[in-house]
Amino acid sequence: MKKRTSFSASSVRTEPLRHTIAAVRLDGRCYIFIASASTRTWVQPREKIESIRASHESGGMPIKDFRRVDYWAEEYTIPLCIISDTRQAPFGNDFLCLYKDDTSRLYFLNERWEAESRAGYESFRTDDFLDAYSKETERVMRLLSGLGSGADAVDFFRFIEIFREWQKAYFQTEAVRTERLSDGSDPKISEELQEAARLRLKLRMGAEDILYKRFDAILERTAEGHAMKLDDLCFYRYSEMRDLFRKGIKVRQSVLEERKRGYAFWRTDNESRLEVADRFREVWERVLPKPDLKDATEFRGAVANRGIVRGEVQLVLHNRFEMNDQVNAFQDGRILVTEMTRPQTLAACRKARAIITDEGGVTCHAAIYARETGTPCIIGTKMATKVLKTGDLVEVDADSGIVRVLERASG
């Protein structure tokens, strides 16, 4: 009889196997990735969990901080001063950021995902949610419009206060907070979700047009005023930015260079930790999925708009500098595969036969666009950009939320 691999119940939520979107055998071990409306967790063999526990007991990564890790999103470098500001709504307790190679990978820890999902459901089901969210959106847009043009200490801290208000409003319609409302069975809820999605997009456009540009200006003038490199400021913690502005204290260059090579920042039990070098690599190796998914032939996501089509894949990746070139090169009739569509990728969306994303929920940009144009769309797959490559022939079954690889691109 073949030896059966056991799995640790503590490493995954109990879910039916119909939600499994990839099962990969690697080095004699089976790794399963579960992703549905309520699951985003790698299940690891028991011996792997035990090795992490042993590492903790010998002074390694604190396993008590990582009872469960739920993937949330990837973004092009988010400044550490934002990530480490615990008054930013998404980055409070039970949160993890892994930074490496110009990409910030974001996770919720322990019970945070479930708590946010439940809070979002309860909030949206109140009678006045949409009216309140509309008023909140308009209030935040007025704050954005009122941002000044200087870059002194007052401007920076005023900017942070407004950024917090924007984050609080934008986070209300994050995918985790709307996942329990996404089955489309209630037309009234679907209509209200679409309106909430439009308000979310308005907030996003406000960030693109005002907030991000304003922050860039503040960082540029701060770097110039303190005779620093602009890139260095992206690796200052919030407390260090405060010391820079108020006391003129700079972080040692050697410390910044270490952070640039990669860091893990997390907050649990209302305490924050920032790890670099060997400790960062230890966290990285334990959190990120190890299996090579290039041979996966089928995976799932959430349905944003129904339809079944076949076509060749073309990737557009936001963590690359030449994103505009990628969008311009997108070919008519191909399947757009991306981490998440954004206003900058609208030209590619218009040419796409279907859209597949790693991230997002029913109020995301891709879902809005797909519903308004009738484009088949599957969102929140968590792995599309890692499984697929440009030229792959796929079937997008957006009736069932399944992507099937029919033929791999040559080479």
Features:
disordered N terminus; 15 helices; alpha+beta; Glucose Oxidase, domain 1; 8-stranded mixed sheet; 5-stranded antiparallel sheet; globular; 411 residues
Structure, explained:
- This protein is α+β, with helices and mostly antiparallel strands and 411 residues long.
- The chain has 3 domains: 9-60, no CATH class; 72-287, no CATH class; 293-407, 3-Layer(bba) Sandwich (Glucose Oxidase, domain 1), CATH 3.50.30.
- The protein is 41% helix and 22% strand.
- It is built from 15 helices and 16 strands.
- β2 (29-36) and β3 (39-43) form a beta hairpin.
- α4 packs antiparallel against α5 (153-171).
Rg (CA only): 22 Å
How many beta-strand segments? 16
Determine the mean pLDDT. 81
Unreliable stretches (pLDDT < 50, length at least 5) are: 1-61
Instruction: Please outline the major beta sheet.
Output: 8 strands, mixed
**Fraction of helical residues:** 40-55%
Major sheet strand order: 9-16-15-11-12-13-14-10
Distance between the amino and carboxyl termini: 39 Å
Q: What is shown here, in short?
A:
Helices cover 41% and strands 22% of the residues. The protein has helices at 46-57, 80-83, 112-124, 129-145, 153-171, 175-178, 187-225, 230-233, 238-247, 253-261, 277-287, 323-328, 346-351, 365-373, 384-387; strands at residues 20-26, 29-36, 39-43, 69-76, 95-100, 103-109, 263-268, 271-276, 298-300, 302-305, 308-316, 335-338, 354-357, 377-379, 393-397, 402-407.
